[in-house]
């Protein structure tokens, strides 16, 4: 190839470089052999390639040298060296002739006149070079003054002095030819290697050729190769490498430098020739099966390979495309022999790996461009029939090690797309073999990191398909066991756990066994967790450690069972285990969820006394913020949050994973959510700005809290825009909780089509469902179907809600208990919503059928809901299901069933509102009070030690129970209602506004006039706003239930306690009747010595004044209740 190149260059040069006009012939002509590439065949030593070799001239010739010739790039190296030796062209004469050439281009100037090089002086060199030259001369003289040049050079090479290459070369030049040993020359080459290759290229070649072949080291070959490449002698460097490889010299011979030059110049024949020799020189352990390219950490082993120089070539993708085109053109030649084709495959893998590295890690990244590159590249390999299995393995695993691909992204993942291509070709046998187990391990880890159960299940299925008769590797199987335990998938967990116990019995320790109860703790199944906990001792003969006990304690905490949690804590102490951070964590969570600040502080202090570092635990301290919010101590919550921020800035705050910041995000999310529920959007915005200003990371739950604030102020469309656009632009993962917020908001606003759109949007995106999203979906379907029946005027109670029931059946056939294992916030305001599965679903559907008076269907659904829990010991339906059935029984006039459900609801409520103090020191029996007006009743209410944030848990059951008593003709019903309300108040429970008004109306209608007026005066009238001034020219929107009152819709909240308009009308009728009776001489009270009217005016002035000043509008309530009294 090199021989043919000379002829081509000669003929091409004659045609391309001919002058437009015939020039004058020189008086002296060189022989034609000098212009011919046959000069390569001249028996000239290699050092002739240098224009000047200091130290090898004698006498005055030491100062002689040659400058470069005009158009020197046209001459072969050895021809150029010979011409520079015999042609005496100086720098000054060259400048002069260039000036002449500019005046007369037609005349070619050529001369061999000898010249004398000017002495080095300040008039030629700049001051810095002159000073450097003088310093070097002085240092040279000092070394030669103390010792010989040979000894000085040996001492310099043995020292650690750097950047002394020029001095070493001059010392070597001072050594006589016979005085330089082979070892000295080899050491000198190693020392000069760190210097720029162009600086000493010719001298390095001279020294290398003076070395005997037996004394040449691998480093000698490498520096010589570098020198040849610096001189542009690529062919010589290739021959030198092949010579070294044929002698089986081990070490780094400089193949990376040759490949860098040949790849850059797209000299693919030389590349393959060199790489073929490199592959043949390596052991089978190094190259076999392309194991090198299958490792994503190949950078650690790059010294064993040839690509470290070529990897730095810019735009390597273009070189890769050029190589693939070369392979396509000459495939028939490259595939002649297996060895040649093997070298092509190896070279393709190496070059492609480096090109991938540049595309994935350098410069601005365009993900679409990256994807297009991978698709086109693997399609090209497929067309060339080059097996791409190893490159698929490498590229996918390399991508998974890049941080930006490990994070969640709204776009389709490149690594997942490559895996689908790889999987498809393996399934169709286009590629030999199958994906490796290590690849599946990394894919499963990535999918689990993103929390994608569907992808993990897909990869597990593929792993079993490709390896049907082989066990899953231990590390992969252990991760799968932990993953499904975290997600509460009991069936899959037990299958994988049994496989692990059978295949890797020796590794079955307590770290694995603790996952047995942990799975059921995530499912909020205390009895299942207890059964699995006993298996550790009974079946596996292991003694549970503190981690196992912590898991059991977590099960009670997630079930919100304070009694069980305290009993489990005592069992831990009895077992001799020392509590740690994860022991006190569930206890602190129980206290913060109940708003029990005293118990929280006590347990927190106890943990500090035991030396547990809870002060730097961000999640433990965030529990105190939650406890303050549950007791409406917003100032204390914000003060605690700012103290945590200060600790974070001081590096004294960490979360469970040991990192900084995520616990602060959780705290600010809770604050934003609290204000969102209070409809304080401005404060939510302030807290959001604080997060940005203080560099607190925003997460997906931050946006969820902002969305809750928007739906509270009827801005659900804006919340939906955050879900669809803002979170997508910020690459934040959307969860079922976000869709639950949006669907609930649309239902509140009556925008049923938009609620349906959000529901279908969630299904289209295949968002994993949770218990809250399931319930919200049922609400959407129920609202749509109920509206459809109303439009059809179908009022038949036997009509089934088909879509709702079908959705419920789909839920029941799945593992619905695993849906409560999610780590998402809970949107429902119900206290027992976490374990209210599937009873909550049944309760909602019962409520729907109850409004249609389909009582038989409701009873059928109630029985179906309880069947699923029959295996549980001491099972009691949750309050939500009991409330729905109480509503049904009330409409069916089954008052005894209402009373039974009421008793069950009270028992459940007592369990939910219990605090640590009540468990440690049970309260004494509550005294009986004769009247609700006794001040001791309110004192007992204030002193009650129940969870303050759960006092409203019985509001709905109480309302239904009072209405059932009011509907009965039993004369004792009023007494039972009074005792029920008195018992609730003395126990610390609160009643909502509807319950108070229903109870007072019941009193008034049953003749307890004084009690009705007194109760209204004491509990309702303090918040009465008064009647508004009526003006026929100003029409205001009336708030339902508060007609003609001076109130705005912002004044009415769930905590508002004030008389409703209907209650005052009922009391007005009673008061009017008392006045009529007084006019007829009826109503004198001898015990009190006064008339009933005067007694009421004296005891209840605010109520009587509200009745007297009530506007007489003749509305429907006045006409219906005050008929005949006006």
UniProtKB/TrEMBL annotation:
Residue windows of the PPR repeats: 545-579
Pfam families given in the database record: PPR, PPR_2
SUPFAM superfamilies membership: HCP-like (SSF81901)
Any one Gene Ontology BP term: mitochondrion organization
UniProt-listed InterPro entries: Mito_RNA_Proc_CCM1 (IPR051114), PPR_rpt (IPR002885), TPR-like_helical_dom_sf (IPR011990)
GO molecular function: mRNA binding
One Gene Ontology CC term in the entry: mitochondrion
Top-level taxon in the UniProt lineage: Eukaryota
The name this protein goes by in its record: TPR-like protein
Organism per entry: Lophiostoma macrostomum CBS 122681
